[in-house]
Amino acid sequence: MLWMLTGTGAFGLLFLFEYQKCRHVKRKQDGKNPWFFLGTLLLILSCAALGRESTCAGGIRLAAGVLILLAGIVFYIVVLSVPVDAGEYTGDTGKSPVCRSGLYGRVRHPGVWSFLVCGIGYGMIFPDAVLPAVWFTFLNLIYTWFQDRYFFPVYLEGYEQYRKEVPYLFPGK
Question: Where are the alpha helices (DSSP H) in the chain?
Fold first, then answer.
């Protein structure tokens, strides 16, 4: 239970990162913004600890879970890798342009799908940790919804128009 609460708190740090990023842009001031890194690290540590406390699946279920988890990670790293502005995760004050290349031209938040695939793989590997995997996936969906509505319009140039043209999660047309 402690690690599930810790993972939940990690999303609080991600929200804090977004708030701080918007604050820096609005005030046109640079500053340290370590919250994205710390939130991501805390979420990874929470998942590792939950897995350590859980019974590991065996046989085909384990192999399938590992392949699905790796597919989610590779999807995120390879397919979603886009040139990110250096200030994106550091608290830079300038507005970054919206990325429309690759999957970002089809859906606004393709990373949600990657997180879901990773959660499925993780849940298959550690059956006792399915509830945290579902919970963290749900929190990620809420996090991206807030990014989409409140944070990205502040620090991504042209985001309002992008939001009108590109669907949230499911490709259209």
Answer: 2-27, 35-53, 59-74, 111-125, 130-146, 152-155, 159-165
10 within some domain: yes
Q: What is the pLDDT along the chain (173 residues), one digit of tens a residue?
A: 899 999 999 999 999 999 999 988 888 777 788 999 999 999 999 999 999 999 999 999 999 999 999 999 998 887 666 655 444 444 455 677 888 878 888 899 999 999 999 999 999 999 999 999 999 999 999 999 999 999 999 988 889 999 999 999 898 76
Domain ranges, residue 50: 2-165
SS3 55: coil
Check: CB of residue 14 under 8 Å from CB of residue 145. no
Indicate whether 50 belongs to any domain: yes
**Entry pTM:** 0.86
Count of domains forming the chain: 1
The token duo for 83 is 């040139």
Looking at the domain assignment, is residue 172 inside a domain?
no
